[in-house]
Amino acid sequence: MGVRAGLRAGMAAAVLWVAGAVGAIAQEEPGAAQGVARLATAAQLADWGRERDDPGALILAARMVAEVPLQAQGDAAPFFTADALLDEALAMSGDDPAYAAAIAVVRQDPTRGVVTSPYGRGPIATVKTMRAREAYGFDVIARPNEILRVAAIGDGDVPLDLSVRDSAGRVLCRSGVVDHYPVCTVRPRVGRVRIEVTNGGGVWSRVQILSN
Description:
By secondary structure, the protein is α+β, with helices and mostly antiparallel strands. 36% of the residues lie in helices and 25% in strands. It has a five-stranded mixed β-sheet, covered by helices on one side. Strands 3-8-5-6 form a four-stranded antiparallel β-sheet, with no helix packed on it. The longest helix has 21 residues. The relative contact order is 0.18.
């Protein structure tokens, strides 16, 4: 199979994978909540591509990431970005011309970076560098009875534990330390909730925390 045919086959497989992964997203959800789900799916797709040495999957993941604007908070810039995925795809492809052309198309997409999108202003993104076994928690004020979605995207080297608790300390959602890209979706009855992310691995990791 030639590179171009392989690119088409890999992209087709990735599209089917994404269709299954995002099919459950409800259209009535807040735009930023949909954006969190889209970014978490893109992270999983990128891992799928790494496992199969498939640059096409990383290119598609980059396209998904590029569609979602972010509201970055804090001093550290988001590291899970379209450009980072495209750089990784180019290195994985060995600078193959077919893949390089596909990457150039995504880099030049005029819709990248727009503020007006189906995802509104986009999810809030905070980046933390976390030591092995370290926990990081913070409180947010959520709209009562509306969807709150939180995700944590790490470097991919460590499992992450994500939990959401209400103001009384009751666990509304907990991923467990089994996932590199955990997601919690809740409808809190009261506004104040506690979000906590724990690095469950034995090494440090950057973690990009997303919420609507």
